[in-house]
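Propose amino acids for all 81 sites.
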């Protein structure tokens, strides 16, 4: 089972490698302010990295994709479902 810390590291890697957004671990709670294109790239990255499918309805909940911490918690929730 993936821990929150592991999930945060994996999300950080997605952000840096696919979106070219540098993320400092001390800032995991900070708002990333992703635009729609970055959000779509993030979703694709999450689906590949975590082996999950993100439903379109989830995109209507922007709180899931606000910070590295919230994205990581969302990914862990998807793994459990």
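Proposal:
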């Amino acid at each position: 089972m993936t821990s929150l810390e592991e999930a945060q590291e994996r999300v950080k890697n997605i952000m840096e490698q696919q979106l070219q957004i540098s993320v400092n671990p001390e800032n995991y709670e900070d708002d990333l302010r992703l635009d729609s294109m970055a959000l779509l790239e993030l979703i694709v990255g999450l689906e590949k990295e975590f082996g999950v499918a993100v439903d379109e309805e989830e995109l209507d909940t922007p709180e899931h994709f606000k910070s590295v911490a919230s994205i990581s918690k969302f990914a862990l929730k998807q793994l459990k479902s």
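The domain at 4-80 is CATH 1.10.1200.10 (Non-ribosomal Peptide Synthetase Peptidyl Carrier Protein; Chain A). The longest helix spans residues 4-18.
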